Amino acid sequence: xxxxxxxxxxxxxxxxxAQNRLGNAYYSGEGVEQDYAEALRWWSKAAEQGFxxxxxxxxxxxxxxLGVPQDYAEAARWYRLAAEQGFxxxxxxxxIMYREGMGVPRDYAEALRLFHLAEEQGExxxxxxxxxxYEWGHGVPRDFAEALRWYSLSAExxxxxxxxxxxxxxxxxxxxxxYFEAGRWFRKAxxxxxxxxxxxxxxxxxxx
Length: 208
Prior knowledge:
Elements: H1 2-12, H2 16-28, H3 36-48, H4 52-64, H5 72-83, H6 88-100, H7 108-119, H8 124-136, H9 144-154, H10 159-171, H11 179-191, H12 195-203
Helix pairs in contact: 1-2, 2-3, 3-4, 4-5, 5-6, 6-7, 7-8, 8-9, 9-10, 10-11, 11-12
């Protein structure tokens, strides 16, 4: 509680980093009772000062409708403000919105541009989404070898990428079939908490 008290004092003095961290505490319920409306209040204070991480967090609240009515257009607005400052998570999330046409017109080229901006900073989720675009041929020619390349970059950090990489090796899409390698990535995905993979492993009589 003492830490929260000190954080609040700094936040009330207008420190955007403290405001962001206090918003984080209310969002996660760490040291305070979870309260999305309070998270919104503190993140908005930092976001209005141009603090990119808080702008991205505002996008999350509006995207999921946490503490506010769900509003994809407003989520995209906040993500864009953070993305324009080079914040990789916001670039990734805005890219997803352009790919799916959520709150913005569907635009695969813009989605790819944003994913590339994020992956250049090592953002694993952006690497996964690039793999997904190549696997399914959205905005680019379908290319399993390129999908494999992007999934491989992401798979150590992101469970969905590990799962998709396992599927590519299992089916031999763009590479040789390799059940051992598929199993390794399936297990990796399950170990990282991928519920779909855990369910499949149980269905195959394996312990997830």
